[in-house]
Structure formats: C-alpha cells, structure tokens
Amino acid sequence: MAKHEKRFLKNYESKASEYLNDKEKASNLLKKAMKKADKKTLGDAWENLQLLFGIFGDWTSGKYRAIPVKSILMIIGGILYFVAPIDAITDFIPVAGLLDDAAIIGLVFRQVSSDLTLYKEWKQKGFLQE
C-alpha cells in the first residue's frame, strides 16, 4: 500500500462523517463525482466507481441502509478523494492524476467488497428498504 493510500485510510473518516446526516451535501457530492467521472480515462475503475456511486446514492436516499457505517464512510471518503482536484497527485496532471484516483477507488472497492456484493444482490432482487 502506497504512502498516500495509508494517509487516505487514516483521514477518510473525519472528512466523510460530515456527509452522513446531511442529505443535501451528500447528494451534491455525488453529482459532482458523477460529472467528473469519465469512462475513457478511468478504464477498469469505471465499473467500480459506478457501483460506489450507486450504493452511495441509494444510501443517501434511504433506499439502502444495510451497510456498516464504517463502510459507507470509506465509500464517501473515496468519492471525496476522487472529486478533490488536489490530492496525492493533482488531477491537473493528465493521466497520472486520474490513475491516482483510480488506485484509491480500487482500494475502497477492495475494502468494502463484501458489502458491495450484498448490495449487488439487493439490487438484482429489486428490494427497496422501507
């Protein structure tokens, strides 16, 4: 694990917690991230990012809450990192900046993979929590 990934893991919770109970702030973050996402430049991370967007959106709307708080904080932290123009490698540096973001998305995906599996099963069954 790279140095900036360790730093991310250490700091994600304090930043991400601001979004837990603020539906408008969380929704705005998701919109900003979706606007930034580019299938061509993200490659393999694209599908992972779309799944993270999906679970975050369903969590924010209250449709899906069957995820541990620590996992949703990790997802929010990864999305925050993704939208930040200046992180370990600034996004203004073509390709390298997005590769850095893709690495963090991959790390988040691996950390919450079991939660994402349950979410995918929930989506496939079409259940909505009430």
How would you characterize the overall build of this protein?
With 130 residues, the chain is mainly α. The chain has one domain. The chain is globular and about 40 Å long. Helix content is 72%, strand content 0%. Mean pLDDT is 79; it is low at 88-93. The protein contains 7 helices and no strands. It has helices at residues 3-16, 23-36, 39-42, 45-61, 69-83, 96-111, 113-125.
Helix fraction by DSSP (H/I, runs of at least 4): over 70%
The averaged pLDDT comes out at 79
Number of strands: 0
Question: Roughly what fraction of the amino acids lie in strands?
Answer: under 5%
Q: Total helix count?
A: 7
CA-to-CA gap between the ends?
Answer: 39 Å
Radius of gyration computed on alpha carbons: 14 Å
Question: Which structural class should the secondary elements be placed in?
Answer: mainly alpha
Unreliable segments of 5+ consecutive residues: 88-93
Oligomer: single chain
The general outline is globular
Q: Give me the strand/helix succession.
A: HHHHHHH
For the sheet with most strands, the description reads:
none
Number of domains: 1
